[in-house]
Amino acid sequence: MKKIYFFFTLALICISASSFAKKMEDDEFHRYLKQNNELGQQYHNDLSVAIVTGDRQAIPNKICAIYKISLEQAKIAKENKHLKNSHQAETLATENINNLEAILTPHQKPITKYCQVTKRTNTD
What we know:
mainly alpha, globular
């Protein structure tokens, strides 16, 4: 009987530890959001320049880089619902992804396929 309790307790600790590892503190989350937003603004600026100059290689790379950081932000915010501003961060990241997908042509959608199939990433 003691062995059952031991293994049950061990299983609970392992499950709790894996979910706890994803949790963040408010100040850590705030720093992450600030850094992610600065990077996102830079990528948006780079995308604007690529569109204006007609750089056909940079455009998809920047779109996918923005998608990648937005997807990461949405995931982290969803995993940390206990934090202040997590709902807003998740909502804004999701809206950003939807806006990116809106600029793709119908044959390029969905954005997950667009970025995955072409294996586009930001190399800058």
